[in-house]
Amino acid sequence: MSIASKKVDSLPPYLFAKFQEKKEELQAKGVDVIDLGIGAPDLPTPNFVIDALIEEAKKSENHRYSPYDGCSEFKEAVATFYKNYYDVTLDPETEVLTLIGSKEGLAHLMQAVLDSGDQVLLPDPGYPVYSTAVHLAEAKYYPLPLERANGYVPCYDEIPDEVIEQAKLMLLNYPGNPTAATVDSAVFEQAISFAKENNLMIAHDSAYNLVTFDGYKAPSILQVPGAKNYAVEFGSLSKSFNMTGWRIGYVVGNKDVIKALSVLKSNLDSSQFLAIQKAAATALTSDLSTVQEHNAVFEKRRDILVKALRKIHIDVDSPKGTIFVWAKVPGHFTSLSFANLLLEKAGIIVTPGSAFGPTGEGYVRIALTVSVEKFAEVTRRLEKLHIEEAFN
Ligand SMILES: *Cc1c(COP(=O)(O)O)cnc(C)c1O
Asked: With CB atoms 3.0 to 4.6 Å apart as the test, which of 191, 328, 369, 391 could cross-link to 315 if both were Cys?
């Protein structure tokens, strides 16, 4: 008998474990494996944030428990960032909540607002945490197919009426993981209208809000007039400031959702280390020049990769945001068989699109998380594959 609960036992297996195993096998044989499966930035946290952490860590008042909802310095910094960057006004007391990374907040959101049997609309393909958290909350979800032909935006008219009637919550994510899709504010206006008509709440995951290229600026769903009645937005310092290990994020917007999540969280955790929250406040209220510098690095890598893929006739859009390229697999391949081919014949790890939901089949996600020198090597290896033959 397994000690794990049925809920935990029935969680989907960790898909990347198999690739990891193969990676180690190849490395043991001396192959220089290039891992483009990792969804975390490889660049360091900016020095000014580290310096702020060192200063704050020295102060004994920062060694105590944080207030459950997070400290005022961080929540005010989030509100200041929203005012300056989006021209959205937030009350730091009731409309901002500190999270121990946005993954934590997104996962607990499901427990905070769903009862068993409730319905949630989830992007397909989407960040796997959404569906596992819905499963752990004993709720159910309806996948919203995100098709390239529709710009990876859900078709609301195609959702069955009975699903819409039961739906309490909808998740959206732009710039998107894994599709790297970006949208303009009209997409959020349409989403808010849909929520209003059907009396449901939207949680927008904006983990890549600042990771954008070509002069594109990603909008906030809270810029839509009246959005606070229907939406919360999750944000993180992980991707924009290369702070994945620090575990610091936030949720903003609808008071009632934030209240429910904060009540749940106050029973489970005691927020993040005060020194980390205060250092993160420095990052959010900075001039964002380090974000620009990092984006320039990702943009350069993107250009090399997109050029290399197109040269071997792989159909790909050049993304305006995130740290991923979402590429259609060539010829007769499936997501998995193409990912396997790249690993076995080129020593390159990518993530099969099917790992993010059924509509991800036919694509692979390639992360921009190695140096330009490595991407030059990726280019050489892709050319040597003679993938064009797959089209015959
Ligand atoms: C990385 C990521 C997150 C989680 O970020 P943390 O704040 O580090 O927990 C959330 N959503 C998406 C889509 C991500 O890619």
From this structure: 328
**What are the pLDDT digits (tens) for 219-278?**
999 999 999 999 999 999 999 999 999 999 999 999 999 999 999 999 999 999 999 999
- pLDDT for position 242: 97
Domains of the chain with CATH codes: 6-45+289-385 (3.90.1150.10), 47-284 (3.40.640.10)
C-beta of 238 in contact with ligand 1 (< 6 A): yes
CA distance 76 to 281: 8
Mutational pocket test of ligand 1: of 129, 179, 182, 238, the residue with most ligand atoms within 8 Å of the beta carbon? 238
272 lines ligand 1 (CB under 6 A): no
Among 236, 243, 244, 298, which is best to mutate for testing ligand 1, by the most ligand atoms less than 8 A from CB? 236
Q: pTM for the full model?
A: 0.96
How many whole angstroms from 101 Cα to the centroid of ligand 1? 7
Whole-number Cα distances in Å, 304 to 192, 263, 368: 37, 47, 10
Residue identifier of the C-alpha nearest atom 15 of ligand 1: 177
* Range with the poorest average pLDDT among 45-54, 324-333, 381-390: 381-390
What are the C-alpha distances in Å from 203 to residues 133, 140, 303? 14, 16, 32
- The residues, ordered by sequence, that sit 6+ positions from 151 with a Cβ below 8 Å of its Cβ are 181, 183, 187
